[in-house]
Amino acid sequence: MISILAAYVIDRAYGGRRRPPEGKWRSLTSAAVDVVVLVGFVATLPILLVGFWLYDEIPYKVALGLESRGDYLSRTIPTYDADQYLNTTYRAEQIRILAVGGYEALYADAEIHPSDQPCCLSVYDANDEEQLLAWLRQRRFTHLLVNYGIVHGTSWMENAYLMSRQFLERCAQVEYTARNVAVYRLLSDTEIQRRALYLPAVDELLQNPGFEDGEDGVPSSWDTHGRTKLDQSGERSHGGQGAVLVKRKGSLSQVVPVWAKEIHILRVYNRAGPGGEKATLGVTWHDVDGYPLRTDWWVVAAAPQWQEHHMPFKAPAEAVAATILLRPHASGTVWFDDLSFKRELGSLPTPDSLSSCVELNTPEADGQLGRGWYEVEEAGAQRWRWMAQEGWLLLGVERGKDTLQVEGYAATERFQTGAATLQVFANEQLVGEDWLPNGDFVLGSEVPRELLQDEFVIIRFRLSDAFVPEGELRELGIIVDSVCFR
Ligand SMILES: [Ca+2]
């Protein structure tokens, strides 16, 4: 065990930014230490093997070459990955970090100060935005490194104005989150002023979402392009009096404020007008300068009756606004009514609470499930949960696991065509499409690394078909038992 501890001490002492002593003494002491460690290892190998799984905090795997130093540090030090993010994103002299709730100074290149040391305790005295910004700017802090694992258990930190949602939403930008640690960049005065123009006080981000206001065939708050018509007779609407008919090559759009990196849900009611079959819904994300970052497209069916569609979108980092666009897909005309665009989660990401493996036949899965799932059902010892034709969920991302495994049961004989395919999307990118067998199935899809950068990913399933069992009103797709990263 002594040798393990020796390796541990050596790694800590020589591992970070500190350099080992130079010259002859370095090589002599190093060689001596190596010999001692080697002899120690051989002597204690049996004990080592017995205690293999008991001492996760001690870097025996590193010493044995089973784990890289980076992986070991990342696993054992909560703020290590955040430090690496800062080290690779900024030059050390560019930034100055205030650490809230514990930190490891050794692994950050830039200057870092703990907020609970005498130097910085007075940051907790500030009770308003002006005082707090003045304090931070006077000391040239540019970033906050927050270890929520500690902050959430320390009421005087958690309740401080510095950690309030109000302050962080108005004056800081989340740049990085993982493992309950977040990095915030403090905004400049100009950025704060511009953000204040965007931040809404209401849940619903769209203006006039049910097309109840407008005149002369034009809905207020919406930009109309090409051929669109507001019908206020109440005879064509889904709710209230107004609905809009969008014809071929026409479109409706509106710019709304959004929260970077958060999930937003677009709800749309649509039905086919003359010649209409499908509708295209687009969300274009913009940064603070109005520059378009990306457009996410959805194509949904348009039936003769009104149909409700729910679509999750994840805002990119840097996004402050989005343009919502509605139009018929390809040709024909489509009616739209009763839209809604809201953010789904709270303001702060909740990284550690999302599991990378969800067992859907338990009620505990509810916290990660979006739309499209029914309640858990039970008969004897059996428990199961049906998905409708489409369903989505949030799945935590786990380092080194990029295969998405879906297990479930399909009764393909119940489908009209006797067969069905399942499409799997990760953050709206198609990552898998398979024919389902009749009976139990296990499907695996590789998820590209670039989709696994955040603490969670949106997984959406779409079936090519669904069925309504006799005597039931529910539309059923498949039973999903588990969705896991492996
Ligand atoms: Ca309406």
Shape: globular
This entry's quaternary arrangement is: single chain
CATH superfamily of the largest domain: Galactose-binding domain-like
Number of helices: 10
DSSP strand content: 25-35%
Q: If classified by CATH, what would the architecture of the largest domain be?
A: Sandwich
**Which strand order do you get reading across the main beta sheet?**
2-1-3-5-4
- What is the β-strand count? 28
Unreliable stretches: 5-10, 12-22, 49-56, 346-351
CATH class of the largest domain: Mainly Beta
CATH topology of the largest domain: Jelly Rolls
Measured distance between first and last alpha carbons: 33 Å
On the 0 to 100 scale, the average pLDDT is 83
What number of structural domains do the residues give? 4
Notable characteristics:
486 residues; alpha+beta; Rossmann fold; Jelly Rolls; five-stranded mixed sheet; five-stranded antiparallel sheet; 10 helices; 28 strands; binds calcium ion
